[in-house]
Structure formats: C-alpha cells, structure tokens
User: Which sequence fits this backbone?
C-alpha cells in the first residue's frame, strides 16, 4: 500500500535533490507533459515508452541497472545535442509511465480490497509476534510485492539512477563521478 502512495513523494524528493522542484510541479500536469512531448515525433515517444517499460520489467535490479547504464552510455555519446534531447524525453516519459503504473496499481489495490470480503472471526486470542499481532493459529508471513509494486519501485530506481548518470556526465558529482 505504501508503494502506491509513495511514487509521487519519491519523485518529488529525487527531483528536489536534483534542483528541479519547479519542473516536478509542472510535470504533475498531463497538459504540461503533452506540450513538452509535442517537441518529439510519435515514433520517438513510442520508442522511449517501450524502452522504459522494457527496462522497468527487467527481472533483477542488477540487470535493469546494467541496461540503463548501457543505454545512457550510448545516448550520451551521440553528437549535436542528441544527448540532451534523449535525456529530456526519457525523463518526461519516465514520469508519465510512473504515473500510469501508479494509477493502475492503485486501481488494482482498491479492486482487490473491495472484492475480498471481510471475514469476521470468532474471538481468537492474539499474541504479538515481532511487533505484529497475529492470531494463534496464523503464522506471520512476509507479504509478497505485486508485479505493479515491483515495476513502480523499478521506475523510481531508474529515475534516481538516470539523474545520477547525467549529473556525473555533466561533472556535477565531481571529477569522473567521484564525490569531492
């Protein structure tokens, strides 16, 4: 549940740390995103969306981070303003996809909540287990994250990683990416 409500907060935190709080406020508006995306062809937007969705569904963090690093390495090596064009479009589409995934995750969460009937149990004595109250006949189980939650966290991770890559490339993190 926390995952569904924290994407926007995490996005604001990432953007703030990158000095782009004003851009975040504007990016919350779909109209603003649409105006910015108008600068790009439909095929560029669709290819970027496909790339971001593909990256967000990598099976492991390591695989995803390696692919993101490779994609940005290639994009930042392009000539004549293409790196900035790529990074701007990536950022805009990443925000858009993040909002879509978050909304879909919320929708599924609330559908699951409303479709699962609340069962009333007889009074069963409860005992605290690791800070959680669990009925005697239940064993504490670790909640498994849904595919939407995993994808949402992958998108947040990609946002942080790509901001770091770009700042490092621009020399804003210090010489050759080392903090000074």
Assistant:
């Amino acid at each position: 549940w926390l995952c569904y409500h924290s994407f926007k907060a995490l996005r604001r935190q990432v953007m703030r740390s990158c000095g782009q709080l004003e851009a975040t406020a504007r990016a919350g508006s779909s109209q603003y995103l649409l105006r910015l995306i108008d600068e790009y062809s439909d095929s560029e937007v669709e290819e970027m969306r496909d790339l971001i969705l593909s990256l967000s569904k990598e099976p492991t963090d390591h695989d995803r981070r390696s692919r993101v690093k490779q994609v940005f390495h290639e994009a930042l090596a392009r000539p004549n303003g293409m790196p900035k064009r790529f990074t701007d479009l990536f950022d805009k589409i990443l925000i858009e996809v993040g909002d879509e995934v978050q909304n879909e995750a919320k929708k599924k969460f609330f559908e699951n909540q409303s479709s699962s009937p609340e069962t009333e149990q007889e009074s069963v004595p409860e005992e605290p287990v690791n800070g959680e109250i669990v009925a005697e006949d239940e064993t504490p189980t670790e909640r498994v994250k849904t595919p939407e939650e995993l994808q949402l966290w992958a998108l947040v991770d990609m946002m942080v990683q790509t901001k770091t890559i770009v700042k490092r490339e621009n020399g804003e993190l210090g010489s050759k990416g080392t903090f000074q």
